[in-house]
Each structure stands twice: as C-alpha cells, then as structure tokens.
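Reopening this ticket.

The earlier resolution said the output was attached, but the attachment link was broken on my side. Pasting everything inline this time so it's all in one place.
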Amino acid sequence: MEEDPSTRTSKSRQLEPCYVCGAKSIGCNFGVLTCMACKAFFRRNAVKLGKIEFICYQNGDCVITHEYRRMCNCCRLAKCFRVGMQRSSILSESEKQARKDLVEQNRRKREEGKLMCHTRKIRSNLNAYSLEKCPKALSSFDQVILTNIFHTYERVYSQKDFEPLTNAPVLKLTAVDTFFNDSEQRVRVLFDFFKLIPEFNKLPIMDRARLVRTNFGPLFHMNESILKRSSHQNFIFSLQAAFGDIGAHEIRISFEREREYLYDPILLKLIMIIWCFSLGMNKYTYNIDTSVIYEDTLAIFASESVYVELLWRYLRSRLPSTEDTIKFFNSFVLNVLWLQRTCLAVDRFMLKSETHVKNMVPLLQCIICPSPNSLRVTEDTSDMNLTNVQ
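Inline output:
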C-alpha cells in the first residue's frame, strides 16, 4: 500500500536536522527547524542587533556546523537569518508574561470546569431523591433537629440589623486586617448560632472558646459560602489584595468545592456544627496535642458523634443507596482536606503578618492571633461572648 504523501512529508520533516548547524532538531523555532542550542542562540542574540556589533575575523563566510558553530557568532547569526529565522517571533518579557497568564487562566478554567461537572453530578443525584423517598432513614426526632438547625441559623441572621444575607462586600478591601474586620458582625452572629446548639451550650465556657478559636478558619470559610459572598467581584478583588494571586486562587478553589453543597438548605450548616466540635488540626499552632487543653473532651466527642450520625442518616435519606452515600462521603472528605490545607496556609500567612493582626478588632485578634501561646491565653474570652444561653 502506497504511503500518503502528506504523511511521508511530515515524517521526513521530523527527521530533518537543524537548518543552521546540522545537529538534531527539536522542532520549528522562530519559523525554522532548529536544535535547542541554535534556538537559544538566536533568541539571545537577534535582539542585540543594532545595540552591539557582530564581527567576523575571517572572510565573513565561516562554515557553521555542529562542531564549529561556536567559533563565529557573526556568521552563525547571519546564517540564522539566511535560513529564514524571524526576529519578529521573539517574545518580549511582557508578551512572555501574557502567554504565561493565558496558560494559567486556561488551567484554572479546566479546574473550575471539572469542579462544576462534579457539582452537577452530585446535585443531580441528590435532587432526584427527596426526604420522602427514604422515610426510614430519618426519624421524626431527626427531622425536628434538622428543621431547628435551619430555622435557628436563618433567625439569628435575620434578627441582626445589617446587610441582607446575599449582599456582597460593599467595598473592595485592600488589606488583610480590613478584610477580616469587615466580617466582625457576621462572626459575632455565627457565635450566636452556636450558642443555640444545645450540645455546644452545655460545654464549659473555656471549651467553647477553644473550639471556636481552633476551628475558626473552616467555620469562617463555610459561613461566607452560606451567605453567598464568595462569588461577588468585590470579594474576589479583596482576596487578591489581601493574600496575593496565588493565595487567593487557592481560597477560591476551596469556595468552588463548597459550592456543590449550597443547593441544600441544611447540609452545609450541619457540616459546620460537626466541624465546630472537631478536635483535629484545624489551626497552624505550636501545640502538639490540642486535646489536653479541653476540660470535657468526652462530651465534645459525644456531641460530634451525634451530629456525624445525623449527617449520615440525612444523606442516606437523600441518596438512592448506601453505596452512593459512601461515594458522597469520600468526595466530601477530599473537599475537607482541601479546605484544611487552605486554612493552614492562611494561618501560616497570618503568622507573618503581625502588623495586620494588631490592626484587627479585639475579637478577631483573639481568634486569629498567630502567637505560639495563643491557645494557652484563653482566660480573657469577653470579646468572644460565649456565655451560656438560658
């Protein structure tokens, strides 16, 4: 069978040597097949024309081969132009940066596309099954608790005289301290919500303060998602101004991962309660074992177990099978690990930002303070206002 001419031409071109020196070519560079060395030579020297003088000490017709290509830069550069290499194809520094930015932008779009596809898949599974589809999974008592969680959260935020829940940041915040200070009122309302959780309210006040402080990063992150502030342009600008492009990108990916849970009115609120009882490593500190500082560790574990089991039964009621529930949990754990990674990175960032921490309101200084002794200095909890609700 006769080979296709176009295929034969393509194969033969791949085997052609460098047009400048005859070495093995790596591809088409600046319009011509060249080796890596001649590609670098042309990029480095073509831009110097008119700035420095290239001189040939022979007769201006030196032989340029793989062995002798370094003998005469003048003749080598002249041959580069002679075989067709184009100076106009050399990118300036700004053009290189623009190309890098475009590559990075496309990479982010691919990541966000994967997340959106994943979100749609989970959403379609959950929306296909209402609570009535699996009545045995949730008892009437479970449904009362879930209803109370939803209405309690909505009530504590609706009672406060501030921006509607879905409003975005009014201003573009340009520093870390202003970014967190803007959230003070929302954080205080979040504390009011936790004080209305019976198991949390029964804990010793010092344990409540330590739990909120240790888990503040993930709780703050999820609460901002529930309030739907993370998708507004002012919020995105504030992230970039406060944490830089790379840090802001990591945080935005975490918000994207949480977005798949926002369609459900209860799920993220329930997860937030579970996280509030967590004794794991959710804060970047020098403490080796945080469990030793709690007064009633057993009660904390018991409370966490109650809500973890409730979460399982709730998901089991929304999904078609135990296998689907396990898959959902696996996906959820991956998102939790990503969120923990992001929050630890923010804590490390704050550890180097003591000046900004000093400019924060006292409440947030008490929580975000990056001092190695921050978990031991817990006696002054007046700003956190976690006293018992009667």
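Reporter confirms the inline version is readable. The chain has a mean pLDDT of 77. DSSP finds 16 helices and two strands in the chain.
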